[in-house]
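User: Can you fold this complex?
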Amino acid sequence: MYLPPIDESHDGDRQSWIESANGHPDFPVQNLPLGRFLLGGDLKARAGVALGDSVIDLGSLLATGLLEGDAQAAAQRICHDAGNALIALSAGHRQALRRALSDLFSIGTSRSDTARKSASVFLHDMQDCRLLLPCEIGDFTDFNAGIHHAANGGRRRGQPDPLLPNYRHLPIAYHARASSVVPSGTPVRRPWGQYLSDESGVPVFQPTRKLDFELEIGIWIGRANELGSPVVIDEAPDYIAGYCIVNDWSARDIQSWESSRLGPFLGKSFCTTISPWVISPEALAPFRGSAFKRRPEDPVPLSYLHHPLDVLEGMPQLQLEVWLTAPPLEEPRLISRSSTGHLFWTPAQMVTHQASNGCNLSPGDLFGTGTVTGPDQGSFGTFLDAISPQRPSLLVDCVPRTFLEDGDSLTLKARATRDGYASIGFGDCSGRIEPAIDRYQGAPIQ
Amino acid sequence: MYLPPIDESHDGDRQSWIESANGHPDFPVQNLPLGRFLLGGDLKARAGVALGDSVIDLGSLLATGLLEGDAQAAAQRICHDAGNALIALSAGHRQALRRALSDLFSIGTSRSDTARKSASVFLHDMQDCRLLLPCEIGDFTDFNAGIHHAANGGRRRGQPDPLLPNYRHLPIAYHARASSVVPSGTPVRRPWGQYLSDESGVPVFQPTRKLDFELEIGIWIGRANELGSPVVIDEAPDYIAGYCIVNDWSARDIQSWESSRLGPFLGKSFCTTISPWVISPEALAPFRGSAFKRRPEDPVPLSYLHHPLDVLEGMPQLQLEVWLTAPPLEEPRLISRSSTGHLFWTPAQMVTHQASNGCNLSPGDLFGTGTVTGPDQGSFGTFLDAISPQRPSLLVDCVPRTFLEDGDSLTLKARATRDGYASIGFGDCSGRIEPAIDRYQGAPIQ
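Assistant: Here's the predicted assembly.
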């Protein structure tokens, strides 16, 4: 199991000559995530790198000749190849590009002065860029690795053991809808759907009354395996191109009525918002940590899901936050804090399990970890985990709140911190709730 | 709700000058389905039309100048556009192309003699062609519309009412895996997976012992709706580009252990085989029939799922067959007959429901209807429906059989017949079971 090394690009003392990058909560020069964007009236997506409040235009940087060798080859592939080249870069190319960018954009490195001179050619204000999905998403799998979220669900259903018998033996997951995954900032329209009326107990077709969010981490798959050829856990990290934040918006009334016996469907497929930047395994190298500490009575994972290095270093250690802006409040309120420490399965275990039957992964596949809720009241990853019959709402600035209302905006954040290293973040994963379309009921949409 | 009319292209007396087409069980001149294929050492897929034992090479036909107007425009789009143009043709273009092909390839029509003279330019033996998927599959949804299959599942689980309360109110479905959908003829490798050992009752990681098939009809989506904009049932037929057969191979032991509570996952995602030709709504026009006859006590569908014409003509009437070739028997044996009359929901209801929450469909999305099992012992659509504690195997030529064994080949067929019209078929949906890969258990794959 090869994991990216820590090198000079992770040096916490490195500062960038792009001043907004220094101390930036998400994008210091130690991060350098890839993404795609539109500028002005562009019709064609450009590839870019986030640095402070700027986006480095990779195509324009390439044209300056400042990139060489494998870094140049990587940028050429991203900018000139069709398809999902950005996400399908080999680990070697990805590392070479990241190190070259670190060299070009840090102060006091061999080539930073040269780069600085032509900055106007390839730098854009991020606020002028429309950030897109980083690639075409092939298949989208949503796991249920957040153990407290899974247990809360079992408690709500009155299960004798909150966790079902299979939960600690394998990473439970379901296929999710790829077409409705959108980048941060896309408005979220309240969906119509069929569910049991609270009043009459019979099915109705109406806008959801229980619109919820789910705080998840996303895992980008960057490499393909052939159909019929599983991925062994030793090689699983090679299949991960990077990470993002996922908000798997959920309509709980629709989900509850439709889910027996085949699982979630339309309660989830109306919209899923992700943060637009691909945070690479290289950028996260200093922030690897141990897998979930199992209790002595928990089952030992079967051998195909076990690797000693994965136990020691398999989990990216991320602090997560949920911010709500709810009219008439104008300022966002931090309503929850959680962390990836509550994920029972590591990304490598998820990759290995998904491909264990020979299912073929493709560059551009997306995994969601499942809702990352912590054990405490202030660490919920969805309203469902925050409320209960005993506590049917939570207070946000003295206002009792349950599910999402029209006009609410929600922003999810993820950040990695470690003493001696510059913190890096994922960028926002945001959406604002728009009212349901008017007068649907099967009538032609006006 | 506009449905394709019956016109001269459906005339049962039309014969083709391609003699193998006349009386052909699948591809008489009244069918003319589109598909994609490779010829010889081709690297690039060609578009083709099935006619008898031949494939019409659409690009070569276009080059002869024999196609004009909308038919020419349709063929140009298919042959020259990138992406899923074949499946994304407008209904008007699809109809124009079909009528032009009927005119060119039938005996006694105005232009058949001209076409016949240049036949060598655009005709290939189908057996020389490697048939491919007709398009890139975006998202794949699997419904559970076969009511007897759903009820059999409930009986196996000992439910008081075999059908769950939601079943008759909405088309139950789940998101399925698109990457592992393969064209007919692709070998099916027995998957490894985690399941409870029959002997010890504890989880093991081994090749499945309960490899099964599922007989389903596939629905190709040919049109996009915008995210947030539902598809009303009046317009749902416009979204259907055609039909195929789906064999949703299933590993029952894996499925059973993994499915609570999020539904099927790896028990289904190792391989799904489809028939390669897109049978158009136009070719199926004479074979439309009424939706499932609900009992008086059944709920009336909510208005968004109801259209009078869909009740009268919403269901393509197809006879389905399952053929098993099991060594040492050399000849295929017909082991089951079923029909689409056992589907509780129509294709238009499935389209409408899938998009009812605003989920965006895309050309190249695939729906499976769910297993089409009939009420009788000889009409099973999966081994699971054929066997029970009381009858743990079925006899095939005096040999007791349950789940699929290595070396078995299974072929699913679908055919539409009606007095006064030429019958049309879907072509084979076949796969042969190959042994599991040797020595996996998490070890590097050799």
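The mean pLDDT of chain A is 96. The longest strand of chain A covers residues 240-247.
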